[in-house]
Amino acid sequence: MTLEYLGQCHPYAGKSATMMSDVGLGGSVVMGLLDCLPKDVRFQVTFDNYFTSLPLLKALAEKRIGATGTLRSNRLPHEDYPHEDPRIIKKKPRGSYTYHYSPYHKVVVTQWNDNNVVTIG
User: Fold this and answer.
1) pTM score, two decimals?
2) Which Pfam families does its entry note (predicted)?
């Protein structure tokens, strides 16, 4: 059985003074919300493409927090993730996919062709 619940929320109230430059604005919001989690329990979090970035996924992996989120293909550095151009994947049959693991980021990025190309990390 899996228990899923809201652990913490923070309504947006304008610009904040605290931002972690290495994970960006969206990543700073996620890291701030996860600060309250107990350190001795494993968690899995999910978020959408506004928040997802490779530096955030790496930072969460270092804290032993599992994370999954959709990625914008323009946020994937090609030197770390030699991913295919979405235009090429779109020409493949529906259900086709590619994936790449980065030992540096400790993240797997998968792209697959559905109705559109979906990238997830």
Assistant:
1) 0.77
2) DDE_Tnp_1_7 (PF13843)
Query: Residue 48 in 3-state DSSP?
Result: coil
Q: What span, in angstroms and rounded, lies between the C-alpha atoms of 90 and 113?
A: 6
Given the DSSP bridges, would you call strands 97-102 and 107-113 parallel, antiparallel or unpaired? antiparallel
Domain boundaries, the chain: 24-120
List pLDDT tens digits, range 19-69: 677 888 888 888 888 888 888 888 889 988 888 888 898 899 888 899 999
Rounded Cα gap, residues 65 and 58, in angstroms: 10
Determine the Cα–Cα distance for residues 65 and 39; give it in Å rounded to an integer: 9
CB 46 within 8 A of CB 69: yes
What is the rounded end-to-end Cα distance, in angstroms, of the chain?
25
